[in-house]
Dihydroflavonol-4-reductase
Amino acid sequence: MELVFDQNKPVLVTGATGYVAGWIIERLLTLGLTVHAAVRNPSDVKKIAHLDALAKKHAGNIRYFKADLLNNGDYDEAMKGCQVVFHTASPFVLNVQDPQKDLVDPAVLGTRNVLESVNRCPSVERVVLTSSCAAIYGDNIDVANTPNNILTEEIWNTSSSLQHNPYSYSKTLAEAEAWKMAEAQNHWRLVVINPSLVIGPGINPNATSESFNLVRQFGDGRAKMGVPKFYIGVVDVRDVADAHVRAAFLPNAQGRHILSGHDTNLAEMAACLLPKFGNSYPIPKRILPKWLVWLVGPLADKTFTREIIRRNVNIPWHADNSKSRRELGLIYRSLNDSMNEFFEQLVQSGQLNAKK
């Protein structure tokens, strides 16, 4: 599949210091493109050091622009002359005090502000939106109500709310807003990427994504007693980046795309780490029974409510990734490689300490 792009026209990446954005920028620089990186504070040298290092290694260039998701018009300057906008900026945090302020507003208002800038920018031909499988389903129990018990791009999350799964609710509202705005105009095309849980090493080893927190728990002792059989889809961050670039530059790319390399669960993810790291780190080996998780889960983690446990633990999860393979040409990395390379990065960056 041949990518079609103009090397003389820049591209914009919102949320440029983020986990997924880092690998997208790496791919774009490899293609020799100029990346307009929108960040909240371009003068924070530590926050952008990993991106500067990328630019030194590849053919493309980076220009930084100050922009805030909640400020209308902040992306106008960064977007000038761009052929594609990659809108990746959206918080992925689970433990928040105010879901409306901390999750929904940045996701929905941020998407609206970015796309209003696109409407004012005649050079933009395509927008690639980083959505999520969270916009397709809220809990594993929802999968049982789908045709053939499998998630597809036609399905939307209808079970999440501000009170239950507010992160999923924010992703659903944000993507819906993007489609509404896309359908109201005719000068740019929207292509959406819907990843499941993103794992794998980051360009920045100290990224703040919840994915890092989850995998750290497999090695820092918090999960040494075992993990629940919580089924989930996972996908490597590098595959997600490849999908974004293909969604931007394959002429016929359109619509939503489920990105999920593996239907798995927490126990299988942990088991991938045992051969290499099991002797040195407290990798969980046991599956906790649902009744025990029901009793102690909410005490250990306030976001792990009994409603979450009831609707997800021991309930299978399946998604159809055939569109991403067929139309974007994706070949997914193995779960074993993704988990081990991710864990190795956490070790090498000093985030995990071996058992004495």
User: Anything to note?
Assistant: The first helix runs from residue 19 to 30. The chain has one domain: 11-348.
